[in-house]
Amino acid sequence: MDSRRGVIEEFLAVHPGRFCADCVGLALDIPARQVSMARHRLTATGALRSERAPCSGCNRVRLVVAAAGTPAGTSVSQTAVDSVALPRARLRSE
Ligand SMILES: [Zn+2]
Known about the structure:
By secondary structure, this protein is of the alpha+beta class. Helix content is 50%, strand content 18%. It has 5 helices and 3 strands, in the order H-E-H-H-E-E-H-H. A 3-stranded antiparallel beta sheet has the order 1-3-2. Strand 2 (48-54) and strand 3 form a beta hairpin. Helix 1 packs across helix 3 (32-44) and helix 2 packs across helix 3. The longest helix is centred in the first third of the chain and has 13 residues, at 2-14. The structure holds zinc ion. Zinc ion is lined by residues 19-20, 22-23, 55, 57-58, 60.
Protein backbone atom coordinates (compact mmCIF):
# COMPACT_ATOMS: atom_id res chain seq x y z
CA MET A 1 0.00 0.00 0.00
CA ASP A 2 2.89 2.33 0.70
CA SER A 3 4.10 1.92 -2.85
CA ARG A 4 0.64 2.95 -4.10
CA ARG A 5 0.85 6.13 -2.10
CA GLY A 6 4.28 6.74 -3.55
CA VAL A 7 3.19 6.41 -7.16
CA ILE A 8 0.15 8.61 -6.58
CA GLU A 9 2.31 11.31 -5.04
CA GLU A 10 4.72 10.95 -7.92
CA PHE A 11 1.91 11.12 -10.45
CA LEU A 12 0.66 14.38 -8.97
CA ALA A 13 4.16 15.80 -8.86
CA VAL A 14 4.60 15.08 -12.55
CA HIS A 15 1.07 16.06 -13.57
CA PRO A 16 0.07 19.36 -12.00
CA GLY A 17 -3.65 19.59 -11.50
CA ARG A 18 -6.35 17.77 -9.60
CA PHE A 19 -7.55 14.36 -10.48
CA CYS A 20 -10.34 12.04 -9.43
CA ALA A 21 -9.61 8.52 -8.27
CA ASP A 22 -10.81 7.10 -11.58
CA CYS A 23 -8.35 9.13 -13.62
CA VAL A 24 -5.42 8.47 -11.30
CA GLY A 25 -6.29 4.80 -11.28
CA LEU A 26 -6.56 4.68 -15.05
CA ALA A 27 -3.26 6.46 -15.56
CA LEU A 28 -1.40 4.32 -13.05
CA ASP A 29 -3.29 1.09 -13.68
CA ILE A 30 -4.42 0.88 -10.08
CA PRO A 31 -8.01 0.07 -9.06
CA ALA A 32 -9.85 3.33 -8.29
CA ARG A 33 -10.81 1.89 -4.93
CA GLN A 34 -7.18 1.59 -3.95
CA VAL A 35 -6.54 5.12 -5.16
CA SER A 36 -9.34 6.30 -2.88
CA MET A 37 -7.87 4.47 0.08
CA ALA A 38 -4.42 5.90 -0.56
CA ARG A 39 -5.95 9.34 -1.03
CA HIS A 40 -7.52 9.20 2.42
CA ARG A 41 -4.16 8.45 3.99
CA LEU A 42 -2.27 11.03 1.98
CA THR A 43 -4.74 13.81 2.70
CA ALA A 44 -4.74 12.88 6.36
CA THR A 45 -0.99 13.36 6.52
CA GLY A 46 -1.20 16.62 4.59
CA ALA A 47 0.80 15.27 1.65
CA LEU A 48 -2.15 15.85 -0.65
CA ARG A 49 -5.18 18.03 -0.75
CA SER A 50 -8.65 16.73 -1.49
CA GLU A 51 -11.54 18.87 -2.64
CA ARG A 52 -14.60 18.89 -4.79
CA ALA A 53 -13.59 20.41 -8.12
CA PRO A 54 -13.47 19.69 -11.83
CA CYS A 55 -11.08 16.84 -12.52
CA SER A 56 -8.12 17.74 -14.73
CA GLY A 57 -8.47 14.45 -16.50
CA CYS A 58 -12.18 13.95 -17.17
CA ASN A 59 -13.52 17.46 -16.40
CA ARG A 60 -16.25 16.10 -14.18
CA VAL A 61 -16.80 17.80 -10.84
CA ARG A 62 -15.87 15.14 -8.35
CA LEU A 63 -13.82 14.59 -5.27
CA VAL A 64 -10.36 15.20 -6.64
CA VAL A 65 -6.89 15.05 -5.20
CA ALA A 66 -4.02 17.45 -5.80
CA ALA A 67 -0.50 17.94 -4.54
CA ALA A 68 -0.53 19.91 -1.30
CA GLY A 69 1.22 22.81 -2.98
CA THR A 70 -1.41 23.20 -5.71
CA PRO A 71 -3.24 26.48 -5.24
CA ALA A 72 -7.01 26.20 -5.01
CA GLY A 73 -8.96 27.15 -8.08
CA THR A 74 -6.00 27.21 -10.45
CA SER A 75 -6.93 26.73 -14.04
CA VAL A 76 -5.94 23.36 -15.33
CA SER A 77 -2.95 23.16 -17.60
CA GLN A 78 -3.44 21.52 -20.94
CA THR A 79 -0.33 19.49 -20.29
CA ALA A 80 -1.97 17.71 -17.40
CA VAL A 81 -5.03 16.85 -19.45
CA ASP A 82 -2.94 15.51 -22.30
CA SER A 83 -0.84 13.41 -19.98
CA VAL A 84 -3.82 11.64 -18.54
CA ALA A 85 -5.25 11.02 -21.97
CA LEU A 86 -2.11 9.17 -22.98
CA PRO A 87 -2.30 5.42 -23.26
CA ARG A 88 -1.29 3.57 -20.15
CA ALA A 89 1.60 1.93 -21.95
CA ARG A 90 3.38 5.24 -22.25
CA LEU A 91 3.14 5.96 -18.54
CA ARG A 92 4.31 2.47 -17.73
CA SER A 93 7.40 2.75 -19.86
CA GLU A 94 8.74 5.62 -17.78
ZN1 LIG B 1 -11.24 12.31 -13.55
